[in-house]
Specification:
Layout: H1 10-16, E1 33-34, E2 39-40, E3 43-44, H2 53-61, E4 72-73, H3 83-88, H4 108-113, E5 116-119, E6 126-129, H5 138-151, E7 153-159, H6 163-173, E8 175-176, E9 184-185, E10 188-194, H7 196-201, E11 228-237, E12 245-249, H8 250-256, H9 259-265, E13 269-279, E14 288-296, E15 298-300, E16 307-309, E17 316-319, H10 324-340, E18 345-348, E19 358-364, E20 368-372, E21 383-390, H11 403-407
Parallel strand pairs: 6-7
Antiparallel strand pairs: 1-2, 3-4, 5-6, 7-19, 8-21, 9-10, 10-21, 11-19, 11-21, 12-18, 12-20, 13-14, 13-17, 15-16
The structure holds fe (ii) ion (FE2).
Keywords: Dioxygenase, Iron, Metal-binding, Oxidoreductase
Domain TauD/TfdA-like: 116-388
Cofactor: Fe(2+)
């Protein structure tokens, strides 16, 4: 199967901009683009005046300075040109503490402080009402990590959340990913921006017929040596209608497979590719290459001990050990399990109940895929800040059980 070109992911969309900044008309900001080379040199983009009012109010309240411009781009010096440089960004083991592992299974501290805990579907998605994320104790944070590991994605509406506290929570959950190409909140490199208007400004022309980068099934950062665990997206500006996001459960996808196919996949590995491409230093004229890393196709979650199917259409390229045609057929089937089974998905509308407040979603990339709905067509503003915590080196424990096995649910 040929690798997907470009990318799809909502998360990577905002990193595409750096290669397009020289297409921006009327910017006149020498700090942004080195016109001699036509490459971005980092600094501030000139779009602060386009920021929606709720975002501006949040930034003003929490001391985020947009006077120099918005968003901020990382310096060009840090952007990999060659694929070996991209591998080197993070190529070694680093410590990871699974916060959900020793949490109270009953989550008394977290649930006791909430006014309501609402399971949105049987198998995936829980909304917690009446709690502010920035006020959680460490005990509640641990219990939330376990809840995310069990329910795949957890939502909090009506949040008054500072970018600084969002970053701090992400650091609690693991090493925060800092992307050498992604634009971020000024002064806070670990908080990337989800802002369709920015993409529009830098030349990404989505139409309702063709959405280039957002509306595809994907999992964040699967090509990392230690891929993404929890992603926390906080939308501070939300369309009146639409702009939903959909998640699909990797636990439940695994349980959908026949025992024979489960047995075939258990212990196998696949190749996962990066969204971005880079030149091969030894073969620079033969096109750009993805970063590729090999991970278990069925992985065990360290907090729940449950098996999860770990593939996605955008970034899982091939199953190791199979002929290309065999791999393509099996992967296509596995992608379809996530994408076609509505009973293992949750579709969430982000709208808060109180004006001026934002909504947060925290999901676990080890056990899910997601897909952003673009039905609002950027006719209304949508803006969010996102922090991704990297997790453990993926592993498959042959002794681990599926979610349904572990919960004692019917396997027929
Ligand atoms: Fe994403």
């Amino acid at each position: 199967m040929s690798p997907p070109t470009a990318t799809a992911a909502e998360d990577i969309t905002l990193s595409l901009k750096t290669t397009n900044l020289n297409d921006v008309s009327d910017q006149g900001k020498e700090i942004l683009v080195d016109l001699t080379k036509g490459k971005p040199v980092g600094g501030y983009a000139p779009f602060a005046h386009l920021l929606p009012a709720p975002t501006l109010a949040r930034y003003k309240k929490y001391g985020i300075d947009t006077s120099k411009g918005y968003p901020e781009a990382p310096p060009q010096a840090g952007i990999p040109t060659f694929v070996d440089e991209a591998y080197a960004v993070r190529n070694k083991d680093f410590p990871y503490i699974e916060r959900g592992k020793n949490a109270d299974p009953e989550k008394k501290s977290l649930f006791g402080a909430a006014t309501e805990v609402r399971h949105l579907t049987k198998h995936i998605g829980t909304e917690i009402v009446g709690l502010q994320l920035q006020a959680l104790t460490d005990q509640q944070r641990d219990e939330l990590a376990l809840l995310i590991a069990e329910r795949v994605v957890v939502f909090f509406r009506d949040q008054d959340l500072s970018p600084q506290k969002q970053l701090e929570l992400g650091e609690y959950y693991g090493q925060v990913e800092k992307h050498p190409q992604a634009v971020h909140v000024p002064g806070l490199e670990g908080i990337t921006i989800i802002w369709p208007e920015y993409l529009h400004q830098v030349g990404v022309k989505n139409t309702f017929k063709q959405v280039k980068y957002t509306a595809r099934w994907h999992t964040d950062l699967v090509h990392e040596h230690q891929p993404a665990g929890i992603t926390h997206l906080h939308n501070d500006t939300i369309p009146e209608v639409g702009g939903d996001t959909v998640w699909s459960s990797g636990y439940a996808a695994y349980d959908k497979l026949s025992p024979a196919l489960q047995e075939f996949l258990d212990g196998k590995t696949a190749i996962y590719i990066s969204a971005h491409t880079y030149f091969d230093r030894n073969d620079p004229l033969n096109g750009k290459k993805h970063v590729e890393r090999e991970h278990p196709i069925i992985r065990t979650h360290p907090a729940t001990g449950w098996k999860s199917l770990y593939v996605n259409r955008s970034m899982t390229d091939r199953i190791v050990g199979l002929e290309p045609g065999e791999s393509a057929v099996i992967l296509e089937y596995l992608f379809g399990v996530f994408e076609k089974n509505l009973d293992i998905q949750v579709r969430f509308n982000w709208k808060p109940t109180k004006p001026g407040l934002g909504t947060s979603a925290l999901w676990d990339n080890r056990i899910s895929q997601h897909n952003a709905v673009w039905d609002y067509e950027n006719t209304e503003p949508r803006h969010g800040t996102r922090v991704t915590s990297l997790a453990e080196l993926p592993y498959f424990d042959p002794e681990s059980k599926s979610q349904r096995q572990s919960l004692g649910l019917s396997l027929d």
